Amino acid sequence: MNDNQKSFWTPGNVLTAFILAGGLVLTFLRFYKGIGAVTNLDDNNPWGLWIGFDLMCGVALAAGGYVTSASCYLFGLKHYHSAVRPAITTAFLGYFFVVVALLYDLGHPWRLPYPLVLSQGTTSLLFEVGLCVATYVSVLFIEWSPAALEWLGFRKIRNFVIKLTLPLTILGVVLSTMHQSSLGALFVIAPGKLHPLWYSSFLPVFFFISSMVAGSSMVIFEGTLAHKGLHHKMDETHLKEAEGVAFGMAKAASFILMGYFFIKLFDITMDDDWQYLATGYGAWFLVEIFGFVLLPSFLYALGVRERNMKIVRIASVFGVLGIVINRFNVSMIAFNWQLPAAERYFPNWMEVGISIFIVTVIITTYRFIATKMPVLYEHPEYKDAH
Amino acid sequence: MHRRKFLSLLGGAGLASAMGATKAKAGGGTHTFKGYPDAMGVLHDSTRCIGCRKCEQACNEVNNLPKPSAAFDDLTVLDTKRRTDAKTYTVVNKYNTAGLEHPVFRKQQCNHCQEPACASACFVKAFTKNPDGSVTYNGDLCVGCRYCMVACPFSVPAFEYDDPLDPLVQKCTMCHPRIQEGKLPGCVEICPKEALTFGKREDLLAIARERIRKYPDRYEKHIYGETEAGGTSWLYLSPVPHAELGMPVVGKTSAPELTSGALGAVPMVVGIWPVLLAGAYGISKRKEKIAAEERAEAVKDAVNATKAEADGALKAAMEKADKEKAAAVDREVKKAVAEAEKAFEEKLAAAQAPADEADAGETPEEEA
Question: Residue B277 and residue A170: Cβ atoms within 8 Å?
Fold first, then answer.
């Protein structure tokens, strides 16, 4: 860092530093003055942006970890290998900072381990989420650790961890299945509050299926970003496999989105919610389903057929946005839909600030890790074990 | 089916509740908890309520809550719609409904569900459904996640958002401590119009039904709370449809019933997913192995074919060489014979003498 002291203060880094400084001020306000001082949450709207975005979207968009590692290690798609480490790194950081973000939202953040160690509320879907996320963060940490261990040169531990790959991958998929779906299942308890177009007893299935789309879309989307900023850190294998990974993920996402479209359609039919389509919420629902489920499905298919990376990348943006829109709808926009407009929730700018702060911390940490550790390239001394 | 205690349902693991559901099905019943037999409740009769806010005052006093900015005898407060909050466990709202010349009042507080959504949703078991019917909360366990507030179909629990250190969820306790002392809940005790009746839930239901039967013109034929959210300890009679008093339309399904399917899926996922995934791994490994074997087989075949071809070619070449060798020998022999004959004839011609016929002239030739 000393060598390029001049080049360190690039516009991007200045912006990062500015956001981080602002975030620390907001963090101080949150913990010194309370949740009420920095959020627009109230007794009718107990969950806002920190749950709707940081938790719901954070967990969904970190699904790339289980999607990629399962494809590579369980389903034998070996050519995804170079994509596993970046995906696991993102997933680990994603989950870790989901927990960090959660500390802002909890009234008693220091009691977060209570459900695990003191009093287990096993009838709660949130208990399942908590248990799975806590376990999965640990699993992801172990899955990710070889990158750090190779960097630090701890060969023996690293080789031991590599041997755990298969069971860890299976455990990762089991845990992901459970908590991705449970995040949706959280709202199954509130049929009166969530709009019928989004409420379904199949919410856990929807959340799990769409998390696969989120995972594959994020792998493509992140790949695009990483190629812009960290191209020089990628080795030949990574660069050679990158397109194949993107097309493979795109193909999978296209199919899954199509399936997702149909289960949503069947759900509307089963619950007979057709009459709601003619309302304002119905229009918004159609925007979500056609603009952010069917359109990306079609774009992905087109991109794969034409071998056109540009279309695939555009599709991935729609895929990612679609997940964000869906999670926002379930947790905020279509939640409490019957309340009068004056009692509805809209985030405070400081809530948005904290969320931007968390995302920035994740990106900065990722850049640090990808710059220092063998994530986008294979460590020359450890090629044998792959 | 044997009646299960609600607490054991709450305390059971996801596995246990899933198995409970299965057993219930096998028994032909449902696993719905019908409530503690001696559970108490309160009946609010809107036709008797005059909106005096005395109950609000009593609640404030017995719970030692901070004094509100507007005094309790200030009835202009009723003109704006209010809800319960962390410092107000009960509120009375005024509704002007079509068809009635006088306003109707609705009292709001925790309904103390038979199967509370808050208790079902709480991941640290901070809520307890007590045998006296009340639902109480233990702030020492609370993590402050506010899922209870999301889960509550009546939007009752409130949170102390402005407390940075010990923000807790607050709601009506049905005066659980007072009931334990043999006293009435504060609001019931003070009500000057007997709009509030405290008693066993079963008895209250009978009273409510009797009032509807006696005065069918005065009441809407529905006891709100009898089946809402699986039944609540608080019950409501109203002269107009309850929805007109801002009471949420809540289905009959209780919270544990709503979530039992999702919870029941957990052990299934834990049980079968590793098998399927390991199977997928096994299949992909097996495919790789078969592919490798086939590749090896193909290579072997190719090698064999090449070898056979080479052998054939070699053999042919050898045969050809043998033939050529034989032919060459033959040729050389013939050549030698021819040469020998020629030499003999030349010798013979040169000699041309009366040589002995019996001389062994051919013998050296033969040997050559």
Answer: yes
